[in-house]
């Protein structure tokens, strides 16, 4: 199968990186999945294997497709080697500006001049993520949603420097991944996180002040507004730590009281109640 990017490096094998690697491989790309330790890489690969296996059990994925997808994914802990010969790099490392910026500065000299550089950041300024990186025209945000193989949206974020050719190529690839791309200007929280995080934080404030139980707050949005999942359950899915970091960032950037992180959220994160990944959040998992 031919597509816009035949070879892709995905940096970071966490929940998002693993999901992104999976959908790229499902679209026919050869994928190099990289993380800093062999343990992280294997955990990411295990996530992909489990998802595909469940797909087979549900009758959604053919066994031969599962095997073909897995065969298209190779893994490494060597970031530079992962990126040397690829057409697209998608970064999905933790949401720390210095980490992402340092990574792209390092890679810009390693990859080919045509290689598109994409960040999966959910809210950080892309201008800052790509600051000082050579070839700003090929830099773009590709924001995926969790669980990546099931969610239809791909939020593309352009900076003032992103070229139309880059936008066109990434839009075409997004469609090949089975996603519906939207195009958003580089601004704090883009379109999705700015709205989604605001709703999630307000739900936590309501729980904190005893307005209703977690179940009933979630039901209000699921049954009353047709959301597939309530805001508290969704915060569990995304991770309280991830959402707290976004909230703090958006509060600083937008200076809007709606982004003030509730004390309950900070306490839960400090106690390691991070949601689905830790087994306990607003719900037991
Ligand atoms: N392989 C293939 N298909 C699978 C599958 C698998 N392993 N697992 C599930 N599916 C399919 C199911 O068969 C089903 O398909 P049909 O609709 O054709 O029947 C579909 O996927 C939905 O699966 P389920 O019925 O098992 O689950 P569900 O209906 O409860 O939906 C969900 C699950 C898609 C996660 C839904 O609850 C949802 O949309 N939740 C909201 C998620 C969300 O908002 N995510 C965004 C988070 S914010 C973010 O990610 C951004 C950030 O930067 C932090």
Quick gist of this model?
With 285 residues, this protein is an alpha/beta fold. It is 47% helix and 14% strand. The longest helix has 20 residues.
Q: What do we call the CATH homologous superfamily of the largest domain?
A: NAD(P)-binding Rossmann-like Domain
Q: Which structural class is indicated by helix and strand composition?
A: alpha/beta
How far apart are the first and last residues' alpha carbons, in Å?
39 Å
What is the count of structural domains? 2
Question: Which sequence of SSEs, written as H and E, runs from N to C?
Answer: EHEHHEHEHEHEEHEHHHHH
CATH topology of the largest domain: Rossmann fold
Q: Report the C-alpha radius of gyration, rounded.
A: 19 Å
Q: How many beta-strand runs? A: 8
Descriptive keywords:
N-(1-d-carboxylethyl)-l-norvaline Dehydrogenase, domain 2; 14% strand; alpha/beta; binds acetoacetyl-coenzyme A; 12 helices; Rossmann fold; 8 strands; 8-stranded mixed beta sheet; single chain; 285 residues
Q: What topology does this entry show?
A:
Elements: E1 7-11, H1 15-26, E2 30-34, H2 38-57, H3 63-71, E3 73-76, H4 79-83, E4 88-91, H5 97-108, E5 116-119, H6 126-129, E6 139-143, E7 153-158, H7 164-176, E8 180-185, H8 192-208, H9 214-225, H10 231-238, H11 240-254, H12 263-270
Parallel strand pairs: 1-2, 1-4, 2-3, 4-5, 5-6, 7-8
Antiparallel strand pairs: 6-7
Bound molecules: acetoacetyl-coenzyme A (CAA).
């Amino acid at each position: 199968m031919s597509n816009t990017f035949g070879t892709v490096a995905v940096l970071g094998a966490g929940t998002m990186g693993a999901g992104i690697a999976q959908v790229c491989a499902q679209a026919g790309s050869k994928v190099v999945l990289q993380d800093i330790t062999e343990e992280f890489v294997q955990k990411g690969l295990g996530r992909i294997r489990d998802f595909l296996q469940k797909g087979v059990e549900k009758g959604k994925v053919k066994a031969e497709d599962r095997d073909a997808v897995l065969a298209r994914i190779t893994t490494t802990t060597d970031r530079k080697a992962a990126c040397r010969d690829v057409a697209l790099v998608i970064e999905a490392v933790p949401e720390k500006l210095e980490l992402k910026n340092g990574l792209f500065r390092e890679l810009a000299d390693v990859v080919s001049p045509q290689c598109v550089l994409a960040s999966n950041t959910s809210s950080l300024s892309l201008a800052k993520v790509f600051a000082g990186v050579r070839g700003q025209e090929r830099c773009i945000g590709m924001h995926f949603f969790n669980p990546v193989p099931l969610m239809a949206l791909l939020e593309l974020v352009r900076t003032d420097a992103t070229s139309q050719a880059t936008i066109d190529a990434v839009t075409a690839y997004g469609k090949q991944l089975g996603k519906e791309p939207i195009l958003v200007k580089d601004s704090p929280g883009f379109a999705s996180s700015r709205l989604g995080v605001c709703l999630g934080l307000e739900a936590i404030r309501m729980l904190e002040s005893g307005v209703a139980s977690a179940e009933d707050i979630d039901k209000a949005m699921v049954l009353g507004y047709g959301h597939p999942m309530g805001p508290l359950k969704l915060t569990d899915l995304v991770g309280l730590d991830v959402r707290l970091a976004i909230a703090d960032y958006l509060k600083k950037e937008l200076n809007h009281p709606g982004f003030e992180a509730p004390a309950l959220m900070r306490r839960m994160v400090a106690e390691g109640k991070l949601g689905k990944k830790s087994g306990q959040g607003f719900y037991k998992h």
